[in-house]
């Protein structure tokens, strides 16, 4: 089992910055990657950024150049630094941990989300 808890959301003006944090606990040795997702009211949940256990990073086009994902393996934390925020970045942001084991295959663990609101 893996537990995922996000924090760091809040209200910020257009052009401002926020840093989200995702703390992961439990059987972290089976984690193969982390992703950040976001969901705006009335919209589907979208993928934002990915970092694998080997350190490979990928961003959605909508946040490329503005958001930075990073991880601290020693603390089992993943961060999402968000700069040059826009009103369209307003959403609930979720952290997801991907685990892979021989017995259970691929299992995803989600946090409960943290709200980010960007005012115009």
List the helices and strands and how they pair.
Elements: E1 2-7, E2 10-13, E3 18-26, E4 31-39, E5 46-52, E6 57-59, E7 67-72, E8 77-82, E9 91-101, E10 105-110, E11 114-119
Parallel strand pairs: 2-11
Antiparallel strand pairs: 1-3, 3-8, 4-5, 4-9, 5-6, 7-8, 9-10, 9-11
Question: Any overview of this molecule?
Answer:
The protein is mostly beta strands and 120 residues long. 0% of the residues lie in helices and 61% in strands. The protein is built from no helices and eleven strands. It has strands at 2-7, 10-13, 18-26, 31-39, 46-52, 57-59, 67-72, 77-82, 91-101, 105-110, 114-119. The strands form two sheets. Strands 2, 4, 5, 6, 9, 10 and 11 form a seven-stranded mixed beta sheet that branches. A four-stranded antiparallel beta sheet has the order 1-3-8-7, with no helix packed on it. The chain is elongated, with a radius of gyration of 14 Å.
List key phrases describing it.
120 residues, mainly beta, 7-stranded mixed β-sheet, 4-stranded antiparallel β-sheet, 11 strands, elongated
Q: What integer is the average pLDDT?
A: 95
Whole-angstrom Rg: 14 Å
Tell me about the biggest sheet?
7 strands, mixed
Gap between N and C termini: 40 Å
What's the number of extended β-strand segments?
11
Beta-strand percent range = over 45%
Low-pLDDT regions: none
The structural class is: mainly beta
The number of helical elements comes to 0
- Overall 3D shape: elongated
Helix content: under 10%
Instruction: Name the helix and strand elements from N-terminus to C-terminus, one letter apiece.
Output: EEEEEEEEEEE
